[in-house]
Amino acid sequence: MSSFWRSVSSVFMGTLLAQVIPIAGALVIARQYLPEAFGVYSVWLGVVTFLSVVLTARYEAALALEEDGAARQYAVFATVMMTLVLTALAVVVIGAMAWLTPSWLDELSARGLLLLTPSALALALSQIWQSWAAAEGSYKYLSVMRIVQAAGITLLQILAGVFLATADALAAAYLAGVLLGCLVSVIVLRINIVWKWRAIWPASKIFWYRQKNFPIFALPADSISAASAQLPVLIVAARFGAETAGWLAMAMRMLGAPIGLLGKAVLDVFKRRAAQSFRDRGECRADYLQTFQVLGAGSLAFCLVMFFWGQEAFVLLLGPEWAQAGVVALWLTPLFMMRFIASPLSYMVYIAGKQHLDLFWQAALLAVTYFSLHLPQQHDLALQLYSAGYSLLYVVYLVMSYRFSLGKNR
Questions:
Q1: 242 with 36: CB under 8 angstroms?
Q2: What is the pLDDT of residues 323-334, one digit of tens each?
């Protein structure tokens, strides 16, 4: 128990600073940029986030399942190689789509389009190095990576807002901040393997084959998950306008930051401990329940704070023009409560090798997201229905992940 909490505390302190920086920065950004500009930027960021998931083929999620030492380092290199290949393919596909059917990018400017693939590649590489640090148990390095990236993005976006408060300025500053984070990540955590093709290529092929369920099942599932996460802003922007999308994006950003604070710290510890327990004993029920208790307590505290002070906090911190974002945040509170608990524990699908079941669940989530936001004619009803449907599916996910933790004992 003490070992668990020491590990969580180590990651938590670094994650705390990494989350406080963008939260504090959002208070400044909200007064520099109009909701419309923030809404357009959020659409761009949604595409970048989705693309970054595709570029890694989700092999970075398999790093914690590899043995410590050279095997994991070869896996990191193999993941980077796959990411570069898929990035080149993405450039061709996006260029063709922009030329043949330009209407799908109506919300983005030419500059925003040019920044898409480089930003997605930078974010994908950042995710690979952070996943590697977590798999190694190098929580100090993981904290440094997150803090530098968060500070770089936030400070550069604030600086950009002084001169040009546009969506393109937000996007360019985001790319620069992520690149800074990547540079620091590569410096603090280096790959030390035999740099000979005779060694690298066979090791990479073995890793790709051994973890083939990740591109086959986890990639479609997590691509759908990323789409489900970004789809609300895209649909709301198309149906109800950029201003409403800006309220939604700000609400999701402000809610996601504090609940992700402890959630990320717990996940980074849980994935390593649970994977080790599952390899040794064929189950990890104790690790699962311990993690569930921590997340449940944090979720309850978050709910109480939002219920009593959520709306007022948005007006006080962001200004009266963001008052409606506080209302949206209250509607979304049940969703983020359940996400806070379910997301870290969802790593059980990888540990238990149940990616195919995760794919079905993600498909159901995508359908619920689309229809709940697409059918109602008023934005308030659409967002409330979206929150309720999402929350119920998270309950299903928790039941699934608990059964997976039982392993052969269930």
A1: yes
A2: 888 889 899 999
